[in-house]
Structure to design on (81 residues):
């Protein structure tokens, strides 16, 4: 297919493990790992700048993240998670 897969993780070790699984399953080694903590606006800005430098477009987005909390949780910027 020729697709580039970008795996985004906040934990490098777990990101590398996920990267290995995707390579093994897809047989595609054209995969990039980028780090981002989506609870941090600064990290999001840094991630988006890195993504734009490395890739000319985004064709498909698969969002797979979640958080479960019994009480209200906010980022350092005051954004509710």
């Amino acid at each position: 297919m020729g697709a580039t897969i970008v795996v985004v993780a906040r934990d490098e070790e777990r990101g590398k493990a996920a990267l290995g699984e995707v390579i093994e399953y897809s047989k595609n080694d054209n995969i990039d790992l980028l780090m981002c903590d989506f609870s941090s606006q600064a990290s999001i800005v840094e991630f988006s700048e890195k993504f734009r430098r490395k890739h000319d477009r985004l064709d498909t987005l698969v969002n797979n993240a979640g958080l479960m909390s019994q009480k209200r949780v906010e980022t350092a910027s005051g954004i509710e998670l």
